[in-house]
Amino acid sequence: MAVVEQLLRAEKDGSISFGNYQLPEKKKLENFEHNGDVLKVKTFKDITKLESNENFVYESVPGTAVTNFKETENGVSFGVEGENDAQITLGLLENTEYSVFINGTSIGKMSTNVGGKLNLSVELSGKGLCEVRVEK
Fold it and tell me: Which of 43, 52, 106, 109 could form a disulfide linkage to 48, CB 3.0–4.6 angstroms apart?
């Protein structure tokens, strides 16, 4: 299983990778500049959270490692792994319906609430990397 040792890194394809679910105590990295945005990550075994320009983007309970996280105007895509199944919350557009795919398989349509948050569960225990795609 691959964690992000430096907590947050920019990838060559323009995406970002973040999170380390193996840390016993919370660590954070602030003021990471990427594509004109200022990012902040907090991560450890219990939670991983990402903010962009002080706005909520991603949270998992328990903590996860996220690779190739990419946002577009139509949604987000990323790989995620962890030691345990995770509850993931994404910050998206308010009151919008999205199609959600896990490892290429549709798990149906989900709608965000007034705050733009979308919640999903991902089975990670012992399965390695899981690909998630959420699109309008």
Answer: 43
Q: Which residue in this structure is represented by tokens 């299983």?
A: 1
Q: Are the beta carbons of 9 and 19 closer than 8 angstroms? A: no
31's torsion region: left (phi>0), alpha (psi -120 to 50) or beta?
left
DSSP 8-state secondary structure symbol assigned to residue 131: E
Closest alpha carbon to 121 in 67, 75, 64, 69: 64
Biggest CA pair distance of the chain: 37
Q: Give the pLDDT of residue 128.
A: 85
> Would you say 103 and 71 are in contact if contact means Cβ atoms under 8 Å apart?
no
CA atoms within 13 Å, Cβ hemisphere of 14: 6
pTM above 0.90, yes or no: yes
Please report the pLDDT score of residue 6 as a whole number. 87
Segment-wise mean pLDDT, segments of 10 residues, the chain, 136 residues: 83 96 96 96 97 97 97 96 95 97 96 95 87 97
Mind listing the domains of the chain with CATH numbers?
Answer: 8-135 (2.60.40)
